[in-house]
Amino acid sequence: QAFFCLLLCVPWGSSCPPSCQCTERAGAKAVLCSSRHLEEIPKDIPKDAVFLKLDANSITRIPSNAFRHLSHLEELDLSRNAIEKIDRAAFKGVAAGLRTLDLSSNRIRSIPKEALLALNAKLRLANNPWHCECALQEVLWEARLDPDSVQDITCHTAPREEYVGKPLLQVLDAGVNFCSVRQRTTDVAMFITMFGWFAMVIVYVICYVRHNREDTCKHVEYLKSLPSTQGHAE
What we know:
Elements: H1 2-7, E1 21-25, E2 28-32, E3 51-53, E4 61-62, E5 75-77, E6 85-86, E7 100-102, H2 113-117, E8 122-124, E9 130-131, H3 134-142, E10 155-157, H4 168-173, H5 178-225, H6 229-233
Parallel strand pairs: 2-3, 3-5, 4-6, 5-7, 7-8, 9-10
Antiparallel strand pairs: 1-2
């Protein structure tokens, strides 16, 4: 943050979004768009931006390829917005160079794991109304989370009421595995489906046998009703 304050002192000579302030120090170019009442990500962010601050706005969604043209981007601050949806390819094009990504203090309940697991950046995900599930668990285990904020990733909703309000890390340390819960649910659904098909086959076979038995009985009764050969001979 102190570095961003220093950057404020040196204006750019290149183009800059009208709602932002662009500065430069020691060759590092920053685009500062904090607290500008933005509802979406500006389209005209300079391609050579290294630092981008979009915090304290009203952004609700990060669409696919939102930062794809910012190949030099290293730090991205999206904290304190109203973000609810993040597309799978939201950070496509910046995954390799991004060093920090701040998504804290938004309205994010769930996020496609593909959007974050491709990143090498240190992630801040605290203070969001997370729904604790398998995808979030995989992000916690595999992504590079900021250790200072990981305890603030709390279960706002969860499959079981006892997990609500607890840090996700604490729940997982207690032995809970949301991914195995999902697997068991899938297995149960498959079992019910297979049982349903099996029951339908059994019912069909029973009906088929019963129908054939009735036809056989009718045929036998018909044969009995016919005049016998012996009777004709007399």
